[in-house]
């Protein structure tokens, strides 16, 4: 293995997904690599997942851990928590794996009133939550601009876009983000059908779909799933579907069964320095620095203490 590949391997081992503090341009990490920035981080730079906003999805290949974002989709997350506490997702299936797009799961019989799994106390439709009013919380602004929004950056640990003139902010469709499936009507989603962005960031979906969180561990399991051969990547035969063994809210699980994963806080100088390592890569392999980076190309590091 080359020195460059070994360096990348070390960095990847520390990174999961992801995707105020001063703006990113105000705290440059001159000449540093991402590995060096993370190695110099302090315990206060990291945070534990909130068990009540963490979803554990278990299937044959292993476990996927999702951090929910109630600050951006409060009604959908609240409805999902009802479904989770009723164990609604247990035994349902991954129905669709659309190459370079999404992995989707839900009830394969959702369209049949006689066979569909009951919602219990949960709502069957929730008004779309495509954006929220900009709140007074830390926002790390990416200085390199964006095609889809006036401003982009990170807030509360999530990649976000903002329109200061309209006073609105929203989550963005970066790799690993989790969205709510819906029909044409804006209020036709409930959180009972979910998808994860699997490929190149489909940012054209921003503000058209309610995003409820992101995968923080286990994306490699979803990315390795067989692609569906049907229209839009749906599995054509029932036996191709991948059963969900158990889906739980973290607060429902005994502490011993929860992950001890920690995420790098996005409101710290360490994260701002990490952004600079992605804008200008100083690893030995690179011959030139780009001086820019797209929002979805900045990872959110995680670690297992």
Structure, described:
The protein contains 5 helices and 16 strands. By secondary structure, the protein is α+β, with helices and mostly antiparallel strands. The protein has one domain (3-300): Cyclophilin (Beta Barrel), CATH 2.40.100.10. It has an 8-stranded antiparallel barrel. The protein has a 5-stranded antiparallel β-sheet with strand order 6-10-9-8-7, with no helix packed on it. Strand 8 and strand 9 form a beta hairpin. The model is unreliable at 1-29 (pLDDT under 50).
List its traits:
305 residues, alpha+beta, Cyclophilin, eight-stranded antiparallel barrel, five-stranded antiparallel β-sheet, 5 helices, 16 strands, 24% strand, globular, disordered N terminus
Question: Quick summary of this structure?
Answer:
The chain has 305 residues and is of the alpha+beta class. The chain has a single domain, classed as Cyclophilin-like (Cyclophilin, Beta Barrel). It is built from 5 helices and 16 strands.
